[in-house]
Design brief:
The protein has about 425 residues and is mainly α. It has 14 helices and two strands. It is elongated.
């Protein structure tokens, strides 16, 4: 039954369609009369406040000028205590009354004023309570009007705040903030959409650059220049294998003599450096040994083996002697000729490869392609980030929140079109 009666007398909510671009001005038109009426009521209350402060100052003067009635009947000690409290009470009252400046009728400034005066009243009550009760003993007729003024001022403050509350000003202010949020969010979403469009155009452009680069690279790899360069590189690879094989052949000739050469190095002071080179890197030593001194050194080494000066175990001695017989001047010259011819062929091929510009062009195409691909990856991530930021802006939710606030603040159920 209570709910039925409540709904029966409940103010009917108006329904209205409002265009999105008009909603801010529409809401101002709806709330301006509320603020005008509120400011008029506040003006009236502030005038009452001014009157109370004028009366308060007069009553403070009256208290200050008041004399003790029948002073001869009052004990001096009591009189001194009360007069001391009176002076203290007058001091804090004057500070309060002179500190307060009543503003013009503007609800925001007035609310700040009300909060400030309420705090001052609270502080006044706490600091002057003892003096107030003490002064009442001898000046009750003068204190009561002052107390009434303070009470009336407090009541006016509360009435002003109640007026603001009754007009749903807090809800109206929240609605105004929500309107600004809607406006900012729509602008932000449009900025996201514009940026996403621009980045997608850039992405399309990069896609075209990647396709062109891949096509150009494919065409170059099908060209005669590239096929010729490919053949030359294969020839170079084959020669590198032969060079490696030749090097391994030299190593296999001298490695069985390593331990013998180390011992021989100690007794052949004249050619110690040559022997040391063959121990460390036999191929490079052979290339540097233009006179093939190693043949004479190996012959001396064999003599030292046979004479027993070079001490090796029997089996190692036999193997060393056999290996020295294998390493002839003819064998080493054959190896050097073969190695030199391979190196000359390799240099000729390298010059041909260098002269063929197709390799540099393909490398350049690969560099550009990698650059475009990396740029595309970054751009795809940027677009995804922008899309995520755009999706976080829920315009529909903001509109629904705004509709509810408008309904609470001005009692209109709107449809935003």
């Amino acid at each position: 039954m209570f709910e039925f009666l409540k709904n029966l007398f409940k103010e009917k909510t108006e329904e209205q369609e409002v265009k999105l671009e008009d909603i801010e001005n529409w809401f101002k038109d709806k709330t301006n009369p509320i603020f005008s009426g509120l400011n008029e009521q506040i003006k009236q209350k502030l005038n009452e406040m001014k009157s109370e402060f004028s009366a308060l100052k007069e009553n403070i003067d009256a208290l200050e000028n008041a004399e003790i009635k029948d002073p001869e009947k009052i004990q001096p000690r009591v009189k001194n205590v009360v007069l001391g409290h009176k002076n203290n009470y007058l001091r804090v009252l004057r500070q309060f009354s002179e500190r307060v400046n009543v503003p013009e009728a503007d609800y925001k400034k007035t609310l700040e004023f009300c909060d400030s005066v309420e705090k001052q009243l609270d502080s006044l009550g706490k600091t002057s309570m003892k003096s107030y009760y003490a002064v009442q003993h001898l000046f009750s007729h003068q204190v009561e009007p002052v107390a009434k003024n303070l009470k009336n001022i407090d009541a006016i403050l509360k009435l002003i705040k109640q007026e603001v509350e009754d007009k749903n000003i807090a809800v109206i202010e929240r609605t105004e903030r929500k309107l600004q949020e809607l406006k900012d969010s729509i602008k932000k979403k449009q900025e996201f959409e514009t940026k996403i469009g621009e980045e997608n155009k850039r992405l399309d452009g990069l896609g075209g650059d990647i396709d062109k680069s891949e096509k150009k690279k494919t065409e170059m790899k099908q060209s005669n220049e590239f096929l010729e360069s490919k053949k030359e590189k294969q020839r170079k690879s084959d020669i590198d294998e032969k060079l490696s094989s030749t090097r391994n052949r030299v190593i296999s000739l001298f490695s069985p003599l390593e331990s013998g050469l180390k011992k021989f190095q100690r007794i052949t002071l004249e050619h110690e450096t040559v022997v040391e080179r063959y121990i460390k890197d036999s191929m490079n030593a052979l290339l540097e040994d233009k006179e093939l001194k190693i043949i004479e050194l190996l012959a001396n080494m064999k003599k030292n083996l046979e004479s027993g000066v070079l001490d090796l175990r029997d089996r190692k001695k036999e193997k060393a002697a056999e290996q020295i017989d294998i390493i002839t001047k003819e064998v080493l010259n054959e190896i050097l000729d073969e190695y030199g011819e391979l190196n000359r062929s390799k240099q000729e091929i390298e010059e041909k490869i260098k002269a063929n510009k197709i390799t540099a062009e393909i490398n350049d195409a690969n560099y550009k392609l990698d650059f475009y691909i990396q740029k595309k990856e970054v751009l795809v991530k940027d677009i995804a980030s922008l899309e995520s930021g755009k999706e976080k802006i829920d315009i529909d939710k903001i509109k629904n929140d705004l509709r509810e606030l408008i309904r609470k603040s001005v009692n209109v159920d709107i449809v935003i079109s």
